[in-house]
Amino acid sequence: MLGAYKVGDYTEAEDGYWIGYEVERLESIPDGMVAITVPPQRYAVIRHEGANTEIKNSYETLHRWIADNGHVRILRAWHIEMTNENAEGEPAPVLELYDTIR
Length: 102
Known about the structure:
- This protein is an alpha+beta fold and 102 residues long.
- The chain has one domain (2-100).
- The chain has one helix spanning 55-68; strands at residues 2-5, 18-20, 43-49, 79-83, 94-100.
- The protein has a five-stranded antiparallel beta sheet with strand order 2-1-4-5-3, with helices on one face.
- The longest helix has 14 residues, at 55-68.
- The model has no long low-confidence stretch (mean pLDDT 88).
């Protein structure tokens, strides 16, 4: 499962967090759903394990790594959060956080 969003100030129509699944091609889109295309991009990635309430700490670590390594975040590009559904017995999902960089 994927979450996609853009960082920054947006109009109400542009602002949001999209939840979906990656597909190879679009053949038909069910009513009430939309399709977004995320172009090839360069990412810095960190793995977050634990409660969603602690995700801010993982993002802070990722953003510090980006700055320390001379990269620049691209705020008006798609950022991705990727997870598999909780495996039985796992206390929280494992997320991979993809922050778009140049």
